[in-house]
Specification:
Shape: elongated
Structural class: alpha/beta
CATH class of the largest domain: Alpha Beta
Number of domains: 2
CATH superfamily of the largest domain: Periplasmic binding protein-like II
Number of helices: 10
Radius of gyration: 20 Å
CATH topology of the largest domain: D-Maltodextrin-Binding Protein, domain 2
Helix content: 25-40%
Amino acid sequence: MRRRPLPLLLLTVAAVVATGCAPEGSDPGAAPTTADAGSCAPADLDTLEPDTLTIATDQPAYEPWMVDDTPENGQGFESAVAYAVAEQLGYSEDQVTWTRVPFNAAIQPGERPFDFDINQFSITEERRQAVDFSSPYYTVSQAVITTAGSAADGAASLADLKPLRIGAQVATTSLDVLTETIAPDTDPVVFNSNDDAKLALQNGQVDAIVVDLPTAFFITAAELDDGVIVGQIEDSGEGGDEFGLLLEKDSPLTECVTAAVDALREDGTLGDLEQEWLSDVADAPVLS
């Protein structure tokens, strides 16, 4: 059984993004609305399928984001967030459908086979040219991981990492941080997925890889023999690396989905879910 989301306060988008108070005579229990788009109730949303919210993620989906690669079970931070957003919008569990879309395909221009995608998508201006994002639901640092005894084991600074061969997944903030912040002496090794990067690390083809911090803790604890977190990157981008729900460019759902995320942040639900699913992410040394 998946964890039931905490009781959610249904707010109006106008209350969240405009005046900060409900219109006179409004029903505090009504579904969210926007001044431009009207009601955010399921019957009024232009979703892929009527009265259904189609949510996408990649496969495999890793812990602590999803548990057992099964987003439908509501276990893991992002699965729980997705169901909380759905409930905030007025969708029951059986009105949510999951689909799998590769990370790289999701960030390309074009029509989408989903209403929103949740897959640790960092919000960037470059990506905004092709897709829409909700407001952020989580802020994360990037981290460098390796295996015990490797050339990267024991590195204490970015300078220590520069001579090494380091990789990251294509089209990710991890790769941006590797290229721009670590700036190794040799070209970064680019992988199609974190699975490929992890395998290359295990086989000694790279000295280290860059992933987000929660993923770093999971991979080093559960998936790598003698996995080691070298450290987190102090400069992981201006304002931190913020994750947002990804939608089709100019989606009619963007305002309502953003309003739902904002409401979950304001009523403490996002913080509670972060504490539940990400509290085991201990402090890692900072590399600067």
